Amino acid sequence: MNFEVSYDTYHEFKLAIGKVIEYNQRITSDNFLDIEEPELVHDDPETPLPDPQGQSPADPECKGTIESFNVGNKHIILESDDDNLVEMCNKNVQRKIKERVVEKEAKEEEEEEIVAEEEEEQDTQEPHVPPGSSYEKEEPVPPERSSEKEGSGEKKADIQNDETAPEEKPAQRLYYGQDITGNEDDSVFRKLKECFTDGYHGEWAGFYKQGYPASSKHRHMFWHVKYRKTISSHQDFWYHLTDEQLMTEYIARHKDQQPLRELDELKNNIEYGCSDPRMHPLHQDKSEEASKEAERRIDDDFGNLTGVLQSYVEENQVLPYCMILHSLAYRY
Amino acid sequence: MKPQEDKGVCSQEREETQSGEVPATEYEDALDDAAPIRKPEDRHGQFLLMQLKPEHQRLLHEITLTGQVVLRGDDLEGGEPLQRADISYFSLLLMMEALAHASFKTFMEYYATSDEF
What ipTM was assigned to the predicted interfaces of this complex? Predict the structure, then answer.
């Protein structure tokens, strides 16, 4: 060190810096971020003054008109003394509110009308299509006859009057290349109502899906022999079943007839099918048989004992009490 | 005295310090040859330095300047030792904290090289 001070000065200096460090422990450099004296900024003539509207010329929203002000700048208009600006702002706000309300009511009315029309259409159609069916996977199908008649009524009238017009052919409904026209009327799937009590079978039975099931899970029902072009055997048996056999098989499956029958057979044949073997039907039957045999033997025994005693009385004219005890002891 | 450097401490910080546990006495900035204030750390250092007496401020400045003698060889990394005008308030702050936390024996051995000692 190339400077010299007294010990007292150093001692006082160290105490002073210790106090300063201690008293300012909570103050860090973060407390001095971007600190500027505002009066010094305003004193600088070169300092650009802020835009009173809060918009710079580079601001895309700054168009110099009141309508271009954003929501955050509305207070500038309201705080201003110009009544015209306040009235214009209020009118714009009122107009926007009216537009929103009117548009919303109009949309609600349109939605209600659409819903009412859909309900009417659904009422005319029967049964109802539950949501979730795979409409997207369906092949395009020609429209129904009724809709064709409705859609082209005037043209048909003209064609019917024209004698040279070709004969009208009935619309064909194709399903994977197969003509299933009319199947919706005499569909074999209508027999499914025997096992479906909730009408759900109509969803995929083809009653209103123009002849084929709406559900892709049951489309194999159509792939039976009726629509096959080959006679080759197929691993799936339903390819060879007729309509009636198909429906019988399906209804039996739906009602779990075969599993129930097998369960019943198992219940009657398996020895320990129940938790309590005594409750098993097989054991119940055996128990009943055993009890009947026991009753029969008891009846025989008593019958035999009675016969022995009667014979003894007929031979000896007396029946000693010791004879009865001896017979019972001998028997039991 | 550099009045332009006073702008580094705002009135809010002064109020915050004055409302502390012990009211800090604020003296004038006695260092007219310190480096100009450029960073918040410098303002922080100046804020603490102005709570020292002027003679203590100058003493701290001298200690900070002469403390560079501990740098040897490659410690300067090719640079020249700092001159008096290169000592920033942040350097003074660091030296102040180092001195405050140094033991009295170390302090007296390294810095108090007085004949009277």
Answer: 0.70
